[in-house]
Write a structure and sequence with these properties.
Layout: E1 6-9, H1 15-27, E2 32-35, H2 41-52, E3 56-60, E4 63-67, E5 75-78, H3 83-94, E6 97-103, H4 114-122, E7 126-128, E8 134-139, E9 145-149, H5 156-165, E10 172-177, H6 184-196, E11 201-204, E12 210-215, E13 224-226, H7 231-244, E14 247-251, H8 261-270, E15 274-277, E16 281-285, E17 294-296, H9 304-311, E18 318-321, H10 333-343, E19 347-351, E20 354-358, E21 369-371, H11 377-386, E22 393-395, H12 408-416
Parallel strand pairs: 1-14, 2-13, 5-6, 9-10, 17-18, 21-22
Antiparallel strand pairs: 2-4, 3-4, 6-8, 7-8, 10-12, 11-12, 14-16, 15-16, 18-20, 19-20
Helix pairs in contact: 1-2, 1-3, 1-6, 3-5, 4-5, 5-6, 7-9, 9-11
């Protein structure tokens, strides 16, 4: 397809906000109402896990009501491939009365869990295993106190411990020591949501290799929460405009956000797009040809497959850095992106902490082919963007997008071929 993509898109609620809100609601002392929640595989898995731990969760479309109950163990929680489930729920399970077993998809057993496990063990929680499957011996209470972890593999290690910390008897003093902590905006989101629930939190993230947080013990009350659109998923649709010199508006883009909204829009500007925000939403007007960029995407690692797809058609090479932690996502995303770009004849190499992408130049052009998804929703959306420019691109297992973007295939088709 070479015609400009034009249109408007409404994106479902943020997975990151939804799953954090569900955990906080379960730990609250009163009923919570969520509006605009994401309804997808990752949130279904989170809801199922919280129900097993004792919460009452009623779902009516995108409206969710959570009534907390006594935390109970003696159950098995299925994590699928959801990092938020496998890293947010073990601290909650430690507060439950009874053992809780965690397992997931085969790929999930290869995802790192050390930050979560090490942190909980330092707080006195008994855990069998260092990765999935795990057995958390819930005792009904966690003393809390001080823990030091290396969370460079995933910011979710920090967020998971912080979310449950107000229910620890002594609260939590948590330190990260190690390589630079990735995805700091996601931790800032966690802190913001804890404060909105009435929790006292202090944070020092001025040095990403030496961060600290303090959470005071106390009760939580999230109340009512309207969940904003998932801006990382929205970026996939904005990319359609960027690679086709098109014009796409994402409806309901927030004026302020706990997500990395400013960083996302700045990335598109660096790629050469014109970006404007008004009361309707955020609009991207794509350039005649995207610009090659050299950029640290450590704060927005989930954006990398989208940026890599755009960079494949840029006016020069691109270097995406600060993203070594992507090797521990649903798949090794750095290796996967290099393999699939090369499959189409596009130059790509792994760097120690990122990717280098070299677009083809005339008379050479990329060729079509079957792209692997690796059961990874971001690899499917990567392939969809590539297919707007390169003819005869196919992708396996489109349903992998059900993880965070249910109905993606129909929504994409409605946008690019109305």
């Amino acid at each position: 397809m070479t015609e400009p993509v034009t249109g408007t898109v409404r994106v479902a609620g943020s997975k990151s906000v939804t799953n954090r809100a569900l955990v906080l609601a379960t730990l609250s002392h009163s009923t919570t109402q969520l509006t605009g929640a994401l309804v997808a595989r990752d949130t279904h898995l989170m809801i199922a896990g919280l129900r097993k731990l004792g919460a009452e969760v009623e779902v009516n479309g995108t409206d969710v009501e959570v009534t907390p109950g006594p935390l109970a163990g003696h159950c098995t929680i299925e994590c699928g491939l959801a990092g938020t489930v496998m890293r947010f729920l073990p601290p909650v399970a430690a507060l439950a009365a009874g053992d809780v077993r965690f397992d997931g998809d085969p790929q999930a057993r290869r995802r790192p869990m050390t930050g979560t496990v090490d942190g909980l063990r330092q707080l006195g929680v008994r855990i069998d295993g260092d990765s999935l499957p795990l057995l958390v011996h819930g005792s009904g209470a966690v003393a809390g106190g001080r823990a030091t972890v290396d969370a460079s593999g995933s910011s979710q290690f920090v967020s998971g411990l912080l979310l449950a910390a107000a229910r620890f008897t002594e609260g939590l003093e948590l330190h990260h020591r190690g390589p630079a902590l990735p995805s700091l905006p996601h931790i800032a989101m966690t802190v913001s949501m804890l404060r909105a629930a009435g929790v006292q939190v202090t944070a020092d993230t001025s040095d990403p290799t030496h961060c600290s947080w303090r959470v005071a013990p106390g009760s939580l009350d999230l109340g009512r929460l309207v969940i904003e659109p998932d801006l990382t998923n929205a970026a996939v649709f904005l990319a359609a405009a960027t690679v086709t010199a098109g014009h796409v508006t994402v409806l309901g883009w927030p004026n302020s956000s706990t997500q990395a909204a400013d960083r996302i829009t700045e990335v598109f500007r660096q790629l050469g797009a014109r970006v404007s925000l008004d009361e309707v939403g955020l609009t991207v007007q794509g350039p005649a040809k995207p610009a090659g960029i050299e950029i640290d995407l450590g704060e927005v690692g989930e954006l990398v497959p989208t940026v890599a797809a755009i960079a494949a058609f840029a006016d020069g090479p691109s270097r995406l850095t600060g993203i070594s932690h992507l090797r521990g996502h649903e798949t090794d995303r750095l290796a996967a992106l290099v393999a699939e770009l090369r499959r189409l004849g596009i130059g790509a190499d792994e760097l120690p902490d990122g990717l280098e992408i070299r677009p083809t130049t005339p008379p050479r052009t990329p060729h079509g082919g079957l792209l692997r998804s690796y059961h990874d929703h971001r690899m499917v959306t990567f392939a969809a963007i590539i297919g707007l420019v390169v003819p005869e691109v196919l992708v396996e297992d489109v349903t992998a997008t059900d993880k965070t973007l249910p109905g993606f295939a129909d929504q994409w088709q409605a946008l690019v071929a109305p």
